[in-house]
Amino acid sequence: MKNSVIKYGLYGLFTAMICFLFVLWFGQELSYSSQEVLGYLTMIASLSFVYFGIRHYRDQVNNGRVSFWKAVGIGVLISAFVGLGIGIVDYIYTTSINPDFASEYLERSIETMEATLSGDELELKKAELTRQMEDYGGSGFMAILMFVTVLIIGFVIALISGLILQRKI
User: Fold this and answer.
1) Within 10 Å of residue 65's Cβ, how many Cβ atoms?
2) Is residue 35 within 8 Å of 20, Cβ to Cβ?
3) Backbone angles phi, psi at 66, to 5 degrees
4) pLDDT tens digits, 10-31
5) How do the domains of the chain map onto residue ranges?
């Protein structure tokens, strides 16, 4: 199990790092909603190694058998590698490549709000978003948030993969 997790976890980690850096670096001119969609597509593409890692373990290591919970465990561990890769890239991006990301995000979000909201609702939403960015806008927190997000998505993919790939002979 250990070798399958490490092998497919590293595949996912490097895929995540390369794709996420590509999206962050070359997608800077895109809207934040487009960047978000590309970010989630990167996560899902990188987490596809969960399925392949479980299948490899079942077919090549464990004589064609894997229980549901063993498959989920393998999938979650592979997901942790992917989350680590995305978290590292997010931290590097927000500290070195674009250290003004949080303020730029806040500014663009407020511009979007101003185009769609008005009056007291606008002021309330602006204050709420500004407070959230001050409370949670640090690079370390954002990297941890990305790791947890990937882990949650990876858990769901591991559950689905476990259901598909479980085989008790």
Assistant:
1) 14
2) no
3) -160, 135
4) 999 999 999 988 887 787 788 7
5) 2-165
Closest residue by Cα to residue 89 from 36, 24, 28: 24
pTM: 0.84
DSSP symbols for 51-110: HHHHHHIIIIISTT-B-HHHHHHHHHHHHHHHHHHHHHHHHHIIIII-TTHHHHHHHHHH
Name the amino acid, one letter, at 21.
L
Please name the residue that has the structure tokens 């593409």.
45
Is residue 61 within 8 Å of 4, Cβ to Cβ?
A: yes
Q: What angle do CA 143, 144, 150 make, to 5 degrees?
A: 90
CA angle, 137 as apex, 132 and 140 as ends, to 5°? 140
Up-side HSE of residue 152: CA atoms within 13 Å toward CB? 7
Distance CA 73, CA 49 (A): 14
Q: What is the pLDDT of residues 137-164, one digit of tens each?
A: 688 888 999 999 999 999 999 999 999 9
> How many Å from the N-terminal Cα to the C-terminal Cα in the chain?
18
